[in-house]
């Protein structure tokens, strides 16, 4: 990142804002090929699994070809994040702002489940790529249909995004770290611990036994649907 004036923070940069290079200089390796390979690493191993060296090895290419397209890992992540934002859809708000907001929230949630590494990138940089810009413009149209304008419009759609990122991120973390383990199996494993809770914290023990006896996927879906409904109910109450 370029340095700012003395005593100032570094000047932010983005792969989307720097001038394009001459096509005459372009190497055989394309930007799409680089992003494809980066996504394979990210989806398989997360952010820690991606490095410029490993990417070059995966592409059977030297670092020069990669660095022609991206200056560093941050720019590569910008490209990867925008690529997966293409998976996010926003229904036509003509069918109602709430239906559009719900469809958008569920689409974003599904994308995060497919690509859990995206969670920590949201909020870390502006989303300037074409897919992200398309999504944001359509989301503004949906929440504008509800009557929100100006800062209230910004706060309304950001509230939904923040809820989805938090909920879907937690779900993705569970899926990654507890893959193949059900809540019911946890109940069985925690048998002695819960028996102790029965004596000292009977209310909590009873609640855990009741809730965790449910199918894990159904439980997570119930959590998400309830929370999203509460968020949208709150926005409905604040509509102009």
UniProtKB/TrEMBL annotation:
A Pfam short name: TetR_N
InterPro entries with a match to the protein in the record: DNA-bd_HTH_TetR-type_CS, Homeodomain-like_sf, HTH-type_TetR-like_transc_reg, HTH_TetR, Repressor_TetR_C, Tet_transcr_reg_TetR-rel_C_sf
Single GO MF annotation: transcription cis-regulatory region binding
Residue ranges: DNA binding: 51-70
Region listing for Disordered, in residue ranges: 1-28
GO biological process: negative regulation of DNA-templated transcription
Stretches assigned to the HTH tetR-type domain: 28-88
Keywords per UniProt: DNA-binding, Transcription, Transcription regulation
Record-given protein name: TetR/AcrR family transcriptional regulator
């Amino acid at each position: 990142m370029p340095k700012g004036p003395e005593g100032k923070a570094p000047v932010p940069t983005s792969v989307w804002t720097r001038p394009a290079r001459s096509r005459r200089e372009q190497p055989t390796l394309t930007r799409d090929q680089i992003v494809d390979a980066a996504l394979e690493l990210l989806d398989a191993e997360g952010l820690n699994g991606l490095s410029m060296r490993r990417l070059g090895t995966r592409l059977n290419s030297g670092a020069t070809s990669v660095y022609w397209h991206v200056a560093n890992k941050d720019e590569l992540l910008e490209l990867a994040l925008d690529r997966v934002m293409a998976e996010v859809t926003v229904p036509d708000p003509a069918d109602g702002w709430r239906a559009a907001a719900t469809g958008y929230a569920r689409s974003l949630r599904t994308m995060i489940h497919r690509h859990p590494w995206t969670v920590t990138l949201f909020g870390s940089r502006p989303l300037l790529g074409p897919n992200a810009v398309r999504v944001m413009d359509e989301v503004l149209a949906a929440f504008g249909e509800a009557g929100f304008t100006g800062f209230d419009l910004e706060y309304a759609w950001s509230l939904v995004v923040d809820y989805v990122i938090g909920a879907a991120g937690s779900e993705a973390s569970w899926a990654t770290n507890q893959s193949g383990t059900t809540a019911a199996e946890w109940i069985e494993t925690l048998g002695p611990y819960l028996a102790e809770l029965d004596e000292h914290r009977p209310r909590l023990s009873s609640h855990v036994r009741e809730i965790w006896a449910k199918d894990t996927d159904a439980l997570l879906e119930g959590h998400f649907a309830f929370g999203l409904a509460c968020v949208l109910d709150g926005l409905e109450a604040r509509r102009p």
